[in-house]
Specification:
Helix content: 25-40%
Bound molecules: nicotinamide-adenine-dinucleotide, zinc ion
Shape: globular
Largest sheet: 7 strands, mixed
Radius of gyration: 20 Å
Number of helices: 10
Length: 338
């Protein structure tokens, strides 16, 4: 099978590798679509994210869908020919966090495209059958891949307690922010304001259901007269976080999704006086059933985020698309194509 391999910072090669044999509880999936995530771009450009360092050749890509090509001897839930969406983090299902139901916090997680675990820029991938979720016909291959970032958004909205009538501020209108906007609307939020510095992303946010869009390159958040009861920070920009915190209604919920701001200053007196609830989120747990339902019902539009299609020989084009074109949202790699 053909595989795109990251061999060092900025160096990708297409290699032939033997087709992996599924273990008893695994399925072998022929990959149809893989979304490019900011983390793939980061590994390609810098060779590391925090404590995760690329020390050996790594296959990127962790937002994937495909068709079951073969099943292991003990597989009972899936059959050959079924379309599936891959949930790319396979926990041990044995540690304290897993047994408490928080498998995203598993202390022995094997997450695709996170060193040293290979991802899905490959023609074929094996995965535990519990983490290959059957797709209804109404969900396209590309949308099946994007159930992964949709899961990030669902988890964030669940953690924030977004509900009917919520007034939500979403900072950052990248793929994750755009999905948070849609999920928040789907669960009944009536005010969903989104901020960014990218005009085309803000315009799309409004098309996808945001009730207002603020270009914080032009006007400041502080002047917009907002008093959200939920903040979902999706920019990874510490200034966005600090400015938005000031606006929060008492007893508001603040969810930190965006990464990369390092040690941002947190105004503790504000958190105390307003009894704000501040939490991080790390990926998601048990979100695929909700993600599939939202996509299949049309409540969330995933195909609208797709901005380009690339074959396996041009993974580099997919990983650099956002650098060369600021209207890029989600490039898709099709490993079966040249
Ligand atoms: N917590 C998790 O499990 C998890 C999972 C996936 C992604 N993430 C993180 O979520 C964030 C969003 O992911 P993405 O794929 O949408 O990334 P992205 O980089 O495409 O989007 C971030 C957006 O924030 C905007 N931005 C920059 N400065 C801003 C400011 N001051 N105010 C408002 N917006 C601003 C950028 O223009 C961009 O559109 C990233 O930081 C990513 O690392 C976290
Ligand atoms: Zn575990």
């Amino acid at each position: 099978m053909r595989v795109s391999v990251l061999n060092g910072v900025g160096t990708l090669t297409v290699e032939e590798r033997p087709v992996p044999a599924p273990e008893p509880h695994q399925v072998l999936v022929r990959i149809a679509s893989v979304g490019v995530c900011g983390s793939d771009v980061h590994y390609y450009e810098h060779g590391r994210i925090g404590r995760f360092v690329v020390e050996q050749p790594l296959v990127l890509g962790h937002e994937a869908s495909g068709v079951v090509e073969a099943v292991g001897s003990e597989v009972s839930r899936l059959t050959v020919g079924q379309r599936v969406s891959l949930e790319p983090g396979v926990p041990d299902l044995a540690c304290e966090q897993c047994l408490a139901g928080r498998y995203n916090l598993c202390t022995d997680m094997r997450f695709h495209a996170t060193p040293p675990i290979d991802g899905s820029f490959a023609e074929l991938v094996t995965i535990h059958e519990l983490f290959a979720h059957p797709l209804p016909d109404s969900v396209s291959d590309d949308a099946g891949a994007l159930l992964e970032p949709l899961s990030v958004a669902i988890w964030a909205c669940q953690k924030a307690g977004v509900t009917a009538g919520s007034r939500v501020l979403v900072t950052g209108a990248g793929p994750v922010g755009l999905l948070v906007v849609q999920v928040a609307r789907a669960v009944g939020a009536t005010d969903v304001v989104v901020s960014d510095v990218n005009a085309s992303r803000l315009a799309l946010a409004v098309e996808l259901g945001a009730t207002a869009a603020l270009d914080v390159g032009q006007t400041s958040l502080t002047e917009a007269g907002l008093q959200p009861d939920v903040l979902i920070e999706c920019s990874g920009n510490s200034r966005a976080l600090v400015e938005a915190l000031e606006l929060m209604a008492p007893a508001g919920h603040v969810v930190l999704v965006g990464m990369g701001s390092g040690d941002a200053p947190l105004p503790l007196s504000l958190v105390q006086e307003r009894e704000l609830v501040v939490t991080g989120t790390f990926r998601y747990a048990h979100t695929w059933p909700t993600a599939i339902a939202l996509a299949a019902s049309g409540r969330v539009e995933l195909d609208r985020l797709v901005t380009g299609h690339f074959g396996l020989d041009d993974v580099e084009g997919a990983l650099t698309a956002s650098r060369t074109d600021e209207t890029t949202i989600k490039p898709i790699v099709h490993p079966g194509r040249r």
